[in-house]
């Protein structure tokens, strides 16, 4: 009987779990909304992943947690910072990755990876909603009256996206209300929002001397939005590849670290 490993990523908005075998092959991935009780969130998503994989709890040799709630998860054997987990998971999925753009519910990160797959430098925004999934969540529901999963297709219909210059979600809201009142189409505003976030995140990375070497991989919940991926690609004038299941990278990275920690002990 082989050994199995779990990575649990307890983020501010969603909690994720990946289960792998000893070779790092992903056997299950589950995602659920993060509750106020971070420990409970981790347990729920861990047991859901176990059920999906068909693996028994006693066959899990090692668990590593990451994300905002990593220290709250009582079942973890160890914890790892999310930047390290994101890098490990992304490089596992896309060997040769040189830049990671990750936009989650409450933060955004740009990570430069060297040619050995090791983190060179990173920049992170977790202080302001602008440049995060929260920016889209607030403005999409309140102003455009559409669900988040409709935003990407709407962005792609844009013909003349306006510049949204406000650096603050509250002020951006006022700006968008003015645009709607002057008859600017919703799809143009949606793409304007995507471009605004992309510019902000790119500038954050450049301020930290990140040069956006290719391959550039886009992860996090916002990577589900094809309009935002296109915005990054258009501004950088480089190909930006969105992860197929963009919310699994940190949990996968945590599972990879679990494998390494377990082997260190042997």
TrEMBL record:
Species for this entry: Anaeromicrobium sediminis
Pfam (any one): BcrAD_BadFG
Cofactor(s) of this protein: [4Fe-4S] cluster
Keyword Disulfide bond carried by entry: no
Name of the molecule in the record: ATPase BadF/BadG/BcrA/BcrD type domain-containing protein
Keyword presence, Iron-sulfur: yes
Organism domain of life: Bacteria
Stretches assigned to the ATPase BadF/BadG/BcrA/BcrD type domain: 7-258
UniProt entry keywords in alphabetical sequence: Iron, Iron-sulfur, Metal-binding
NCBIfam families referenced in this protein's UniProt entry, alphabetically: CoA_E_activ (TIGR00241)
GO MF term (any one): iron-sulfur cluster binding
């Amino acid at each position: 009987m082989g050994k199995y490993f779990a990575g649990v990523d307890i983020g501010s908005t969603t909690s994720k779990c990946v289960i792998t075998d000893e070779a790092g092959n992903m056997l299950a991935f589950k995602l659920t909304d993060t509750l106020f009780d971070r420990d409970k969130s981790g347990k729920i998503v861990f047991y859901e992943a176990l059920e999906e994989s068909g693996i028994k709890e006693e066959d899990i040799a090692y668990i590593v947690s990451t994300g905002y709630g990593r220290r709250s998860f009582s079942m973890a054997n160890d914890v790892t910072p999310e930047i390290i987990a994101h890098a490990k998971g992304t490089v596992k999925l896309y060997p040769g990755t040189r830049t990671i753009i990750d936009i989650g519910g409450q933060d955004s990160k740009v990570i430069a990876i060297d040619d050995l797959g090791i983190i060179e430098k990173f920049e992170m925004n977790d202080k302001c909603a602008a440049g995060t999934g929260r920016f889209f969540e607030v403005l999409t529901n309140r102003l455009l009256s559409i669900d988040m999963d409709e935003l990407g297709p709407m962005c792609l219909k844009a013909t003349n996206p306006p510049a949204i210059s406000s650096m603050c979600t509250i002020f951006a809201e006022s700006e968008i209300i003015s645009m709607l009142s002057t008859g600017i189409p919703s799809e143009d505003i949606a793409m304007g929002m995507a471009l605004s976030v992309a510019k902000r995140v790119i500038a954050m990375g450049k301020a930290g001397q990140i040069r956006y070497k290719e391959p550039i991989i886009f992860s996090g919940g916002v990577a589900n939005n094809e309009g935002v991926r296109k915005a990054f690609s258009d501004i950088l004038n480089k190909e930006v590849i969105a992860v197929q299941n963009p919310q699994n990278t940190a949990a996968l990275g945590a599972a990879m670290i679990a494998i390494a920690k377990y082997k260190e002990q042997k």
